[in-house]
Structures are given as C-alpha cells and as structure tokens.
Design brief:
The chain contains 5 helices and 3 strands, in the order βααββααα. β2 and β3 form a beta hairpin. The chain is globular and about 50 Å long. The chain starts with a strand and ends in an 18-residue tail after the last helix.
C-alpha cells in the first residue's frame, strides 16, 4: 500500500495513479486518512484484500479498534501491520496521562 497527502496528490496526480496500479494509495489530509485510490483493473477480491490494511489503520488510529483487532482486520501479520502503521506515521504506543496526576515541576 502506498500513501500520499493531498498536497502531493495536487502536485503530481499521475504518480498516485501509477502507484494505484501496484496497490491502493491512501490519501492523507493532514495526518488523517481521507481517501483511498484503487485501480479498477484489479479484481474485487484483490481490491478488498488491499483495502483492509487501510481500513484497519484508520479504525486503530481513531481508537475504534485495538491493535489486535486492527491487525486481525488487516489480514496481515502483526509485524507487517506494525510496520505499515509506522510508514503511515500512526503512533502505535499511546501514553495516557492519569487523571489525578499532578505536573512535575
């Protein structure tokens, strides 16, 4: 799967179309997934299998799915899914601040 942002898509849309021939292209607006470009020559099954990682990454980033759930949805091994998230700039580890914690000065 390839990823690009809106700015790069505006500058060179033909690159995204060429990349879509290999695998779907995830379009990011800011740091949020916004659209997916899928080449129409692929079979429905191929397109579905390549869309799953993008959907799983989006649902994980939004907090809808846990890492395990997103990995299962993606249909790829955990190590490959983690690498995919890193390539998209999605934080895998999220530190949460306890509610009753006072700032350290």
């Amino acid at each position: 799967m390839h990823a690009t942002n809106v700015r790069n898509l505006k500058k060179n849309p033909s690159l995204a179309l060429r990349q879509a021939e290999e695998s779907p292209v995830l379009v990011l607006k800011g740091d949020q997934p916004n659209a997916l470009i899928v080449h129409l020559d692929k079979s429905v099954t191929e397109a579905e299998e390549s869309v799953k990682p993008a959907l799983a990454a989006t649902l994980f980033k939004d907090g809808t799915l846990s890492l395990g759930g997103a990995t299962r949805l993606s249909g790829i091994p955990m190590k490959a899914f983690l690498q995919y998230l890193v390539e998209l700039g999605i934080d895998v580890v999220r530190l949460m601040k306890p509610q009753n914690m006072k700032p350290v000065i």
